[in-house]
Amino acid sequence: MRNPTRSLQSNIQKIPLFFIIAVFFLLYLTTPSANGDRSSPDTILPDERPVPAEPVYGDAFVVGQIGDARTLVPILASDSPSSYIVALVFNGLLKYDKNVELIGDLAESWTIEDDGLSIVFFLRRNVKWHDGHPFTAKDVEFTYKSIIDPNVPTPYSGDFKMIKTLAVIDDYTVKITYKEPFAPGLTSWGMPIMPKHILEGQDLLTTDFARNPIGTGPYKFKRWKTGERIDLVSNHEYFRHRPYIDRYIYRVIPDTATMFLELKTGGIDEMGLTPLQFTRQTDTAFFKKRFQKFKYPSFGYTFLAYNLKDEKFMDKNVRQALNYAVDKNEIIDGVLLGQGRVCTGQFVPESWAFNKDVKPWPYDPKKAKVMLKESGWQDTDRDGWLDKNGKIFEFTILTNQGNETRRQTAEIMQRRLRDIGVKVNIRILEWSVFLNEFVNKKRFEAIILGWGLGREPDCFDIFHSSKTKEGEFNFISYSNSEIDRLLIEGRRTFDREKRKEIYNRIHEILYTDQPYMFLYIPDSLVAVDSRFQGIEVSPIGIGYNFIDWWVPKARQRYRY
Amino acid sequence: MKKLFRNKLTVFGAGIILFLLIVAIFAPQISRYDPTYIDIKEALLRPSAEHLLGTDSLGRDLFSRMVYAARIALLIGFVAVGLAAVIGVILGSVAGYFGGKIDSLIMRFADIMLCFPRFFLILAVIAVVGPNIFNVMIIIGLTGWMGMARLIRAEILSLKIRDYVSASRALGASDVFIITRHLIPNGIGPVLVSFVFGVAGAILTEAGLSFLGLGVQPPNPSWGNILMEGKAVLGVAWWVILFPGLAILITVLAFNLVGEGLRDSLNPKQG
Predict the structure, then answer these.
(1) Domains of chain A
(2) Rounded to whole angstroms, how far apart are CA atoms A66 and A88?
(3) Confidence band for A115, pLDDT divided at 50, 70 and 90
(4) What ipTM, to 2 d.p.?
(5) Mean local confidence (pLDDT), A284-296
(6) Domain architecture of chain B: domains with CATH
(7) Nearest-neighbour CA in chain B from A448: distance (Å)
(8) Hey, of A336, A401, A406, A425, which one would you mutate to test binding to chain B, going by the most B CBs within 10 A of its CB?
(9) Residue A516 and residue A34 in contact, taking contact as beta carbons nearer than 8 Å
(10) Which of A185, A261, A274, B265 would be B3's cystine partner, CB 3.0–4.6 Å?
(11) Four-point Cα dihedral B142, B146, B148, B154, nearest 10
């Protein structure tokens, strides 16, 4: 399960560690994405109950999420709900372990050769696809070819285009040679591997595999009722061991208040809590007895992205001015109720790429007004709104439904920008419509969205000027030649110290250039039913050892 | 008129409507705070002397928001149904008066419109044109005229064969004159009743749309969107959901009571 890469995330989540480097996320809570160094998670375990030693099979795990998956073709899954399911059904060659170190998943081991230009993967020999077909190096090759196929709109192709050759040496050995030294190379092989024998010759955009996937992972796909639920059953043949929990049920409940009621009545076993629920509704004796609460820093952040093709936002001065007008601490105190931190850029403080010298942008609305005036925005007709060439400064912020935090953030920004004479409208859209019709097609002026990040700091896919095609991650059309150069340099450099310098510089430039208004890093707040045993907490949250979770016979709720 | 006010419930309803109208008109004078003023430090305060109905999750004064929401609710109610009434009366009277093909055409069109489930039609249209107060008013208006058109047509069918209409026509009065001076004034009663019920329906529709995030957009308050926000803090702050809920209930009830009373007083069969 879980692929070490990046994926755009979008949810309340926790469980699988997305390896994927970036995912759009829906809710402030993010999956413990592959990441995080230290940060001891603050766990509140329920009292009572001696833990019986021997795990047993059975029961189901029902998770509540606000958004439905979009596609289960792994290389097209760029949002957190899709990645979430993909991470349970598929495996990459590598994954992160508890200490966020890369370990073999489908690959048993690997060696680095030719001064870092090549990687040789030795694959596991006993792995079978869910339909019984054996997994071989041909599947790895097929997955690679699909990703680099120009007709496949995957946001993840960047890392794989750096490959010069991929040679299948025998059924269980693959040698990958890069065109030039490529630091994120190893991490990128967290990408889930797809079955060649099923997908060969199919159009990945229209294949029914997207709704009926066959993987190698701990859970097999069973059924998908759009907008309602996705059912997975445990894979008894899973190469590590049969997961103890028999079923994995993903329920779509597009509203956190309803979800919370479902949690309390036992309809779901796990959800990401809103800050309000976490701080004010879960301290009752009832709740503490029934649930275990977890809190850990997330490896992602929430931002306001500008469409840089829009004339208003092309001017860096304007973007900086807007940043002065919004008080991030107000959002963190008021909306996250303190369960989060100010974001200063692409990297979170737990990352080694984080630049400590980048200080949070001050809140200074007066300065914002002065700067906007420099850019020609003034209230010439005294109607309370700034204008330029007869047009008032007005734009619409889009964000996704079900995420109260984002809606409230939008409302605070609306108010603060009104204070300086900028008119903001807010539009809330359903998750997949939001991504498919607005983000991917770049039909927006500004959006509030989040990234779930991997531990690898490479953010080529997000900020490089070549990654602006539909469905790719540079949906703001950002183009900065220095960033472009640094991103490429960062990928070529292996030395951690040198890389750190490069990413520190990227951090700094992005912060002054403000292609996004960086808002906050939300904490992951998760509640899990107390009947689940074996939950281990790692710096990247819970869920990385999901196949070891189990429920004592007497407390099992579902029978199959 | 006298009969109308003999009914205590009607008077009660009318009183509430009057009260709401006053609140709506004098909203800026009544509310002590700017309804969109955000103060995070004041979030989710209980009702108190300072904040009569408490504050919401962004620290906005709920009382002020409710007062402005009343303004928006009534505005949307009256304008939307007014629009529906104008369209309904024009089309209905033309259909009823001229009869024949014109009648068939207009009334079949009304039938077609009635076939659509109204709320879903509104949802679909709003999703396309984008939600805002103006669009909501227009769309509620454009989808609500059919009942009124049928009512006025029925009235006119029976009125147009009266002697005074024939007399008027014999004196050379034009069709327009007859319709506007004789027929509509005499047949407007049922439309009036329908209008009052319509306002109640429109207010409810607006609240429903805003609750779904497709009506009045932030920062403008509406009972529906306050209710939506209240849902998220249910269990922590009951006041955010209780007051807009009550407001919708009472307002819709008031309009229905008045509509009921009006209908009774216009019904000649009842004593």
Answers:
(1) 6-89+208-289+527-559 (3.40.190.10), 94-199 (3.90.76.10)
(2) 18
(3) confident
(4) 0.82
(5) 91
(6) 2-31+62-266 (1.10.3720.10)
(7) 15
(8) A425
(9) no
(10) B265
(11) 150
